[in-house]
Amino acid sequence: MPGEEIRFRSAHPVRFGAKSYHVLLSDRRILLFARRGALFKSDDIVSQKLDELQGVKYSEQGIISKRGTIRVQGNRSEMDLTGPALEIKTLYQQMMAHM
Q1: pTM metric for this prediction
Q2: Which CATH architecture has domain 6-97?
């Protein structure tokens, strides 16, 4: 949106539910974006405003191939984002800096 500043963009897709998305974090919202379809392309977007967040929790699993998970709790919804630990941890730190 006009006036928003992008603070973080994921280099690798993260999992939300059964789907993969790229993550964009602006100073106002977290956006999950994916382009779907082989022949007819369509955009798949999930958005959560940062000012509606009630809690954010980070955890890691694995020994060799570490995976990170962020649980984002909003007013009406909850998101679990899973991906490479370093990338998810960076997203978590950026989110905490703006809360």
Answers
A1: 0.83
A2: Roll (2.30)
